[in-house]
Amino acid sequence: xxxxxxxxxxxxxxxAWVTVDNPPVNATxxxxxxxxxxxxxxxxxxxxxxxxxxxxxxxxGGDMSEFDRPPEPPHLPDVVNAIEAxxxxxxxxxxxxxxxxxxxxxxxxxxxxxxxxxxxxxPEVNVGLIPGAGGSxxxxxxLGMETAIEMACLGKTFTAEALAESGAIDAVVSDDxxxxxxxxxxxxxxxxxxxxxxxxxxxSPEALSAARERIEKRARGQQSPLHNFEALQWAALPFAExxxxxxxxxxxxxxxxxxxxLRHAFFxxxxxxxxxxxxxxxxxxxxxxxxxxxxxMGAGIATACLGAGLEVALIERDEExxxxxxxxxxxxxxxxLGRGRISPAERESxxxxxxxxxxxxxxxxxxxxxxxxxxxxxxxxxxxxxxxxVLDDTAILAxxxxxxxxxxxxxxxxxxxxxxxxxFFSPAHVMKLVEVVRLPATGAEVLSTAFAxxxxxxxxxxxxxxxxxxxxxxxxxxxxxxxxYLLADGALPHQIDAAMRGFGYAMGPFEMQDMAGLQIAWANxxxxxxxxDPGERYETISDMLCEMGRLGQRSxxxxxxxxxxxxxxxxxxxxxALIEEYxxxxxxxxxxxxAEDITARLIAVLVNExxxxxxxxxxxxxxxxxxxxxxxxxxxxxxxxPMHHARTLGWKEISRTMRQVAGESPGSWxxxxxxxxx
Length: 678
Ligand code: NAI
What we know:
Blueprint: E1 7-12, E2 15-20, H1 30-43, E3 48-53, H2 76-85, E4 90-94, E5 97-99, H3 101-108, E6 111-114, E7 119-121, H4 135-143, H5 145-154, E8 158-159, H6 160-165, E9 171-172, H7 177-186, H8 205-219, H9 224-233, H10 239-254, H11 257-272, E10 288-292, H12 296-307, E11 311-315, H13 319-338, H14 344-352, E12 354-357, E13 368-371, H15 377-390, E14 396-399, H16 406-410, E15 419-424, E16 433-437, H17 444-456, E17 460-464, H18 470-489, H19 493-503, H20 509-516, H21 519-528, H22 541-547, H23 573-585, H24 595-615, H25 622-633, H26 642-649, H27 651-664, H28 673-676
Parallel strand pairs: 2-3, 3-4, 4-6, 5-7, 6-9, 10-11, 10-13, 11-12, 13-14, 14-15, 16-17
Antiparallel strand pairs: 1-2, 7-8, 15-16
Helix pairs in contact: 1-2, 2-3, 3-4, 4-5, 4-9, 5-9, 8-9, 11-25, 12-13, 18-24, 19-24, 24-27, 26-27
Bound molecules: 1,4-dihydronicotinamide adenine dinucleotide.
1,4-dihydronicotinamide adenine dinucleotide (NAI) binds next to helix 12 and helix 15.
């Protein structure tokens, strides 16, 4: 028996009420498209038709799980055109999110009314596509080219209130939606000209080329923003012609590497946040969080918790440090206020939920404590010993350590099942990644609570086992090591940075180090010296820079030089001379590396290390590695992460490069199984 249609039509007093009920987001699946097609036919007997959705949202997009298959009829553009051409005019009555196919349908209705705060957008660009059902052709006609560009090329959403100003939304109603529709019908304006038959005003060629430049700069190699830009300009053509071009490009892009990569990222993000390790475990409720250490990381973590509506006890070591920590959080909240992320009232209520103290006893009553004090084993152990005294035995204890072994940090504490790592990234109130580090003793319920908390903070939690640097910093160390080998063998910092920017990173490895500061990695290399494999190639260029006090932007110079008050990296002849002399002293004949050589090598090293991490069971799978790299290290999302990229490129290609890289630095690159077997 076929399941009931997700679209119901009921005709009452000459009005066809059409309701889409396809939880969770009323996506335009095949069944919904079929249902809408039937609804249009049924509505022909009525005077007016009203399209609404059950649940919290209007149609919020397409069903992405259908995108890998050939499209099934009825096709959305045909359904959308049928709604627009319907003799009985349609009113779209909307709430929640009106995205992608949902907005394309809404634009085909004669009138659009919405609850306040309803958000509209064409986010196809985020999955490597352009709209496929007339969206790119109707949006410039309905919204104007400027707004259409923001939506389709940059993925921005707009509220009903904002769109009502230009008349794209006919009414923003604060009543019950159905009552509001009835009131609207009682005073119905004349039926407007269908959007597809209106004329889109094109901006001047200068304005268009400025827009194109801006889009290209932000895209960093991603193609879909530019495809959307091109498609929007087809709105200057007759509608049918523009729509045919749009459809053809949409279908072609569905099969593109870029769209596949972005869809992979979309699904992987959701999958890693609910790993098998927490299946069946119910998260505990968390109301109050204690954060020990209110420095760079602690203040950011506290701010993220406040933003999620949690009560926060921020504990510092003395009154002066407590005052400084409070000011840090206030500055972060002021920043959020300045950017319009929070309202003045939210700033006040978040500050009211913050208790800063120099007494660890004020952590009492916290359901979970996150430690972010100095990266020092004894300091961390002392903090947890004190927290264990004041907290219940059930309170979860988490460390934000980057490199220390959590087992050593927690050893000897009562109830070890409640201990784990929560490794945030800087700035912690912004960066999405949280590595959830599981110890052998960590309980499933504790883990599940940590995942639920991270999701509540709007983060992407990724489960990691214990190894030096966990998933992300271990890969970063490999990436930087090969970058330094390249310096010794013939490349210069600016060439490597430019190559990686060309691949899609916002910054190359050396610019990045200058921004973050070179001292943490320096301290790490010193710490690792005792256990480093003596057969591994070790270049000392970074160490030499650190010894010269070139610690990055904050010290005024690092791999680059900086002019007073500027953050723009400038090539420094002193560093370049130092590198060249270094190679000469080591007896290395410097050679040329093309940008392609550089990216191929650095990416192969990342992939190899990622594969080893999975093979060792530190990460459950490639999705975890990809999400760590995208959300914590700036790997271009449109390439799907290093492991997805390896699949796209082919493992043979990665293996070929990796063998060469390993051959040139013998003893330095153990090959992952998947690399050596390809
Ligand atoms: P930080 O030096 O900015 O802050 C540490 C804070 O801890 C200081 O404000 C200090 O007064 C406070 N503190 C020290 N002993 C304390 C005690 N007994 N009780 C309460 N507070 C105490 O250091 P940052 O950068 O915030 O790092 C903190 C931790 O986070 C370290 O374990 C670090 O490895 C880790 N981490 C750092 C990242 C970064 O990018 N800086 C990224 C991820 C993790």
